Amino acid sequence: MVTANDLNEQLRDNLEFLKTPPSGNYQLNEGSDYQTTATGWVNVDASNLSITITTAGGDVLVGFHGVCAPANDQSIFFDIALDNVRQGGDDGVIACRRTSTQSAVTFSFVRLLTGINAGAHSFRLQWRVSGGTGTLYAGAGTAHFDIHSQLWAREVS
Fold first, then answer.
1. Confidence (pTM)
2. Which of 6, 101, 121, 153 is the most exposed place for a label (fewest CB within 10 A)?
3. Alpha-carbon separation of residue 155 from 13, 25, 54, 78, 118 (angstroms)
4. What are the structural domains of the chain?
């Protein structure tokens, strides 16, 4: 005879996992906006814009939305680092370019990272600029740009 205890792991626990997969998020509400002049890849903020989740192994969706201000006629490039390894290739997963008629650029991305081993993994937002100074608005009270951007990661398999 099959009992509830026999099926708990296979039915109840698997369904609970599907309802609440490992995930994490960070919403910016900082004391000042982020700025960089780095033309090589660096973490935007290794403390706050870093999410660690413990996965069962498989795929993870990572996303970010925000508002940035590259220097005039320049670009800011963004990427996701999984355990300190960038995932987007040469120019990252998204680029924001500013023209002389813009003051800021709204952007967002979602990236599916596949084949991740089971265990604890960190996801960090990284960036670089093509030139000048790049700004990422961080909910710091900047007039007309008090934007509370968000970084998130969620296991999907």
1. 0.87
2. 101
3. 16, 12, 9, 21, 11
4. 23-155 (2.60.120.40)
The 10s digit of each residue's pLDDT in 7-47 is 777 676 666 666 678 999 999 999 999 999 999 999 999 89
**Residue 51, Cα to own-chain centre: how many angstroms?**
8
Contact 125, 77 (CB under 8 A): no
Quick one: tokens of 102? 């813009």
Please answer whether residues 71 and 124 qualify as being in contact, where contact means their C-beta atoms are separated by less than 8 angstroms.
Answer: no
Kindly state the tokens that stand for 146: 């008090």
49 near 107, Cβ under 8 Å? no
Query: Over 80: is that where the pLDDT of 3 sits?
Result: no
Q: Are 70 and 96 in contact (CB under 8 A)?
A: yes
- Could you report the per-residue pLDDT of 62-80, keeping only the tens digit for each? 999 999 999 988 999 999 9
